Amino acid sequence: MVPGGESWPMIHVNVSSSAGGCTLGTSAFFRYMVRLADHDVKLSNVDKEELQVLAAIPHALEPEEDILGAFGRGWRIVPPRDSLDWTVLEASPRRLRCALEYARNLLWTRASELRISAKEIASIEEEFDALDGVVRRAEAAGVPVNLSYVT
């Protein structure tokens, strides 16, 4: 449950590259890392720019129309190529790692403001470690990382 009593659906963030992949399955990771910019906290323009790559991670099967064709520094949205494919965010490993570390630091410094529990922080840290391993392998191999989520 989130503050106010509403519940979050099951959300899986899929991370892949030719150097490996993983699936992140906690709603806390999605809510507090991927959608951190959506929270009712004051963010500077620098904060918003750093979090933009995470906020752009699309729903694999039902991407929002305004996200298709979007791009930014070190990332872009790649539409499906055929009926067996899905929409993904393609990011350079370095850009993605920077965004994740930035979000992680914001999460820790603003934990009370975000009303996040210790249990949620622990689950986010576990998921962060799995994702960081994929990103580091992709960076070492010189290949991009693809991300999307499903509910």
Give a written overview of the molecule.
The protein has 151 residues and is α+β, with helices and mostly antiparallel strands. The protein has one domain (12-150). Helices cover 42% and strands 18% of the residues. The protein is built from five helices and six strands, in the order E-E-H-H-E-E-E-H-H-H-E. It has a six-stranded antiparallel sheet with strand order 2-1-6-5-4-3. A hairpin with a 2-residue loop joins strand 1 and strand 2 (20-24). Helix 1 (27-34) crosses helix 5 (118-141) and helix 3 (93-109) packs antiparallel against helix 5. The radius of gyration is 15 Å and the shape is globular. Residues 1-6 have low confidence and may be disordered.
Q: Main beta sheet: strand number and arrangement? A: 6 strands, antiparallel
Order of helices and strands: EEHHEEEHHHE
**Whole-number total of structural domains:** 1
Task: Give the uncertain stretches in residue-range form.
Answer: 1-6
Helix content: 40-55%
Number of strands: 6
The helix count comes to: 5
* Order of neighbouring strands in the sheet with most strands: 2-1-6-5-4-3
Radius of gyration: 15 Å
Name the shape in a single word.
globular
Distance between the termini: 16 Å
Structural class: alpha+beta
Average predicted local confidence, pLDDT: 89
Q: What fraction of the residues are assigned to beta strands by DSSP?
A: 15-25%
